[in-house]
């Protein structure tokens, strides 16, 4: 049975406590936890609130920036990821989302070496803490500040290099659903996917992410979700919505419509 979670980036204006209470009230199975919101609330209190709510943690967002593109040193980014792995373990998160960092002034090969170096240090820790690192590629139209991994093949090449059950892929339909061949590949990659994130859009990304409510855009969500379920995927579908249309939405209504949309996507499989 498919599990539904809401990512806290969707409800940007709400606090962590608001998110937990409203996600539970809306009938969500889980929460995609944003580290910043949880830190503002207090990590220990947040873990207790999640436990009391009955919500599972679909993912913890995020760690990475190993290329130094966000102003931190390589070592600082590894130290931060270490803390994120420990926090993900404490909340029993299904996975920790990882962004490589932008290429910046590096060559592509050097940027990749920096990410591989970081993951070599972090994989044993992830294994010890039983936390899956979920590498997320992004559409090249909006990836410039986040990652140089802009295709499914880019991310899979990195995942395949480690052949570790603790380094997998985060598959976000907003970023990967534009590939006309993606449906043909789901069967072969499903074992390497730690999380499927659901987003929709009315046009391909071009600058800032600009998502729309599920089912209101151009992406073949029904076919993608159906292919994952048919291939044996039984983890969370994490709804992540952000952009101009989402910023002004009534969040309570947005939760209800997103939940119903995922249920509708799943029930026809």
Would you write up a description of this structure?
By secondary structure, this protein is an alpha/beta fold. The protein has one domain (3-267): Divalent-metal-dependent TIM barrel enzymes (TIM Barrel, Alpha-Beta Barrel). The protein is built from eleven helices and eight strands. The protein has an eight-stranded parallel β-barrel, surrounded by five helices. β3, α4 and β4 (96-99) form a beta-alpha-beta unit. The longest helix is centred in the middle third of the chain and has 22 residues, at 108-129. The N and C termini lie close together (11 Å).
How would you briefly describe this protein structure?
Helix content is 45%, strand content 16%.
CATH topology: TIM Barrel
SS field, number of helical segments: 11
SSE pattern: EHEHHEHEHEHEHHEHEHH
Let me know the largest β-sheet.
8 strands, parallel, barrel
What is the terminal separation in angstroms?
Answer: 11 Å
In the residues, how many domains can be counted? Answer: 1
CATH homologous superfamily grouping: Divalent-metal-dependent TIM barrel enzymes
What is the CATH architecture assignment? Alpha-Beta Barrel
Shape: globular
**Rounded radius of gyration (Å):** 17 Å
Assembly level: single chain
For the biggest β-sheet, the strand order reads 1-2-3-4-5-6-7-8
Helix/strand-derived class? alpha/beta
Residues in helix, %: 40-55%
Look at the structure and give the CATH class: Alpha Beta
The tally of beta strands, per DSSP, is: 8
Task: Provide the β-strand percentage band.
Answer: 15-25%
Enumerate the spans where pLDDT stays under 50 for 5 or more consecutive residues: none
Mean pLDDT reading: 96
């Amino acid at each position: 049975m498919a599990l539904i979670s809401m990512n806290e980036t969707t409800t940007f204006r709400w606090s962590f406590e608001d998110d937990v209470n409203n996600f539970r009230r809306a009938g969500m199975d889980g929460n995609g936890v944003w580290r910043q919101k949880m830190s503002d609330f207090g990590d220990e209190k947040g873990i207790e609130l999640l436990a009391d709510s009955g919500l599972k943690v679909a993912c913890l967002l995020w760690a990475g920036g190993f290329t130094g593109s966000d102003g931190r040193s390589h070592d600082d980014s590894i130290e931060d990821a270490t803390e994120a792995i420990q926090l993900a373990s404490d909340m029993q998160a299904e996975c920790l989302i990882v962004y490589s960092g932008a290429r910046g002034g590096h060559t592509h090969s050097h940027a990749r070496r920096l990410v591989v170096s970081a993951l070599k240090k972090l994989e044993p820790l992830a294994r010890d803490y039983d936390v899956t690192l979920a590498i997320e590629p992004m559409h090249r139209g909006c990836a410039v500040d986040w990652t140089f991994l802009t295709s499914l093949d880019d991310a899979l090449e990195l995942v395949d290099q480690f052949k570790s059950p603790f380094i997998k892929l985060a598959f976000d339909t907003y970023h990967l659903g534009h590939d006309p061949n993606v449906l043909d590949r789901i069967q072969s990659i499903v074992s390497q996917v730690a999380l499927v994130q659901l987003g929709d859009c009315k046009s391909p990304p071009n600058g800032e992410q600009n998502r729309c409510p599920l089912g209101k855009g151009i992406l073949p969500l029904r076919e993608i979700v159906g292919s994952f379920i048919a291939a044996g995927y039984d983890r969370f579908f994490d709804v992540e919505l952000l952009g101009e249309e989402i910023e002004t939405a009534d969040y309570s209504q947005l939760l209800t419509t997103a939940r119903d949309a995922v249920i509708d996507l799943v029930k026809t499989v």
